[in-house]
Amino acid sequence: MVASGRVANGIGQPVRRKEDRRLLTGNGSFGDDVALPGMAHAVIVRSPHAHARIIAIDKQAALAAPGVLAVLSGADYLADGLGPIPHNPTLNGPPDVAVRKRGLEPITTLDHPLPADKVRFVGEPVAMVVADTIAAAKDAAERVDISYEPMPVVARAVDALAPDAPLLWENAPGNLCVDIELGDETATAAAFARAAHVVRLSTWVQRVTGVPMEPRTNIAEYNPASGEYTLYTGSGRGVAKVRLDLAQVLGVPAERVRVLCKDMGGNFGTRNLFYPEYALLAWAARRVGRPVKWTCERSESFLSDYQGRDLTAEAEMALDEAGNFLAVRGSNLSNLGGHAVAFGPLQKGLGSMSSVYNIPASYFRGRAAVTNTASTTPYRSAGRPEAIFVVERLIDLAADELRLDPVALRRRNLIPPVMQPYANPLGITYDSGDYEGAMNTALGLADWDGLAARCAEARRRGKWRGIGVANYVEITSGAPRERTEITVLPDGKVELVMGTMNSGQGHETSFAQLVTEWLGVPFDSIVYVAHDTARVLAGGGSHSGRSMKLAATIIGRATDDIIAKGRKIASFLFEAGEADIAFEGGRFRIAGTDREIGLFEVGSRSMPRPVPSRSSAMPRSTMSAVPSTR
Question: What is the distance in angstroms between the CA of the first residue and the CA of the last residue of the chain?
Fold first, then answer.
């Protein structure tokens, strides 16, 4: 599975994307394009309070409104025996950095899609209205009368850890859910003690949210005869993961849940975890006996989408007289929001606190607190950008204090290629990297040396111009499980089934190029199948730069398996030794002769003879391979 660079439409070759004709001619199928017979519509009634007890929910006026099918609350949800969302936040194992717990086991919180007792952030779902039309559902939602008892609110993680802060969860004393550390505290303290210079930074990296072009949309239907649920939704973690989590919430075997998605308009991490609406729509479809659709409006998504960042950092850097970095230490505090959904951004960021610099010693503490805000989850590199920002600001502060050129100071302390692989002081080993070369390229592209002339020209126009530089590094890993299924069909097609999730990355094209390269089959012969648990059994979705990395690995293994199977079949057909069969350009041949046979013909010859029966259906092919990674 080595790329030759010579295969037409293969790896690295310019091709017309398979997706583009469909998308550019208006034939894409996104969430809001799905319309099922008899479909009803749902509207979520959300909390206007950041923290409040739910005293009572009066549904009568809403139920009396025209076209209303159901008004559902948290009490109804619990009465029907449904479970909480299985976020299961954990501290990750390798390749993420190993951390030490500071006497506190990580605390998780219950997240029911409709809480029955309290709301913990503005926008949390409180009730759901289902009606014949979206207009009827919206009108009825305004008639749901909810009585609240407002409670004290805390929005910043720093304030949540104060002794007198309002408590969000009884099982999270002091609102603290994670308290960890890493690095060598003693060695770091010694380095600071002998430092000629120390610079300090106290900062807050504000929260953000993904705002994908397509807002979240879910459609669910329930088949009472089979007891099966079908959910149409786009999730960055892939349909297989949503299926398992939804089955757990509903209390049914995974075999009774199907999850599918066609096109998905963006993600950025915002869609990677399980949302309350997945469970609510499936439950509502069973309650009303009709398919139910919910489309998130943009103002609603700002309240209810998972958010990211929100890190408070206290950090300091020690340097010697010449400007060599001696140590870095500090404390990172993550704002989890109203529910503990993910600890990954905190842990991943901690491992990056020395960045690409040769810093001999480091120690950091990491904490995570719940607050009365929307929950935070991994978003756009999950914690690493915040960490890099802190390190780079420390370097700029040091450059100012020492009156050194900020580029020269960085250059002095970058990890040189000769030190690779390099074990950073926090426990992560970098396998490779020419960081100075990368920085030099960026400086050249930015015309760093021409800045003075540009600044002078700007000042003549009454403008100010500035420039900055920062270096970046991260581990790209993500969920380690991925699966592909490749089948050579007798009609001259190769079916490629993948478990990952496309949210605009062009998987249909790039994955097909891998198959074209390694099997030598025409690019247009590859049929891509994904995003449907009726065909996809496992997969980790698209996040953490994992899709192409894992896809290349398992597609390579699968194509190797197919070639090996084909070689056995060809040797039988040629009555030749298997070792004498060569494969190139999609054809098997006896080495040194002109006797050859194509991959598709070998695939058709591999099919068993049909057995007479009342069914004349033919098997597709036995030329298939199904590797997976874990």
Answer: 20
Q: pLDDT for 49-63, tens place per residue?
A: 999 999 999 999 999
Read off the pLDDT of each residue in 611-622 and give the average, rounded to a whole number: 34
DSSP conformation class of 376: B
The pLDDT value given to residue 4: 55
CB atoms within 10 A of CB 591: 11
Task: Please state, in angstroms and as integers, the Cα–Cα distance from residue 189 to each residue in 98, 183, 316, 362, following that order.
Answer: 21, 11, 11, 9
- Cβ atoms of 46 and 124 within 8 Å: the answer is yes
Among residues 45, 55, 44, 46, the alpha carbon closest in space to that of 150 is found at: 55
Walk across the sheet containing 325-337 and list its strands. 100-101, 176-183, 361-370, 325-337, 307-319, 197-209
The residue behind tokens 């842990």 is: 347
Query: Which tokens is 498 given?
Result: 């993948």
- Would you say 375 and 341 are in contact if contact means Cβ atoms under 8 Å apart? yes
Mean pLDDT (the chain, rounded): 90
> Which pLDDT belongs to residue 287?
97
Q: What distance in Å separates the CA atoms of residue 307 and residue 99, rounded to the nearest whole number?
A: 24
pLDDT of residue 611: 43
- Helix (H) or strand (E) run with residue 325 in it: strand 325-337
> What's the pLDDT score for residue 262?
87
The pLDDT value recorded for residue 629 is: 56
> Rounded mean pLDDT of 441-467?
95
Count the Cβ atoms, other than its own, within 10 Å of residue 228.
14
Beta strands per DSSP E along 500-562? 526-529
Comparing C-alpha atoms, which of 221, 205, 505, 187 is closest to residue 328?
187
Structural domains of the chain, with CATH: 31-38+215-304 (3.30.365.10), 154-206+306-475 (3.30.365.10), 478-629 (3.30.365.10)
- Among 238, 237, 258, smallest CA distance to 247 is for 258
- Sign of the Cα pseudo-torsion (242, 246, 252, 258, in order): negative
> E strands along 441-595, which residues?
482-488, 494-498, 526-529, 581-584, 587-590
pLDDT of residue 628: 54
How far apart (Å, rounded) are the C-alpha atoms in residues 610 and 604? 12
Cross-strand partners of 362: 328
* Least confident residue range of 86-90, 342-346, 477-481, 565-569: 477-481
Query: Positive or negative, the Cα torsion across 533, 537, 543, 545?
Result: negative
Per-residue pLDDT reduced to its tens digit, 231-248 = 998 877 788 889 999 999
CB atoms within 10 A of CB 247: 19
In sequence order, what are the residues at sequence separation of 6 or more whose Cβ sits closer than 8 angstroms to the Cβ of residue 582? Answer: 588, 589, 590, 591
pLDDT at 5: 52
Burial class (CB in 10 A: 0-12, 13-18, 19+), 628: middle
Residue 216, SS3 per DSSP: coil
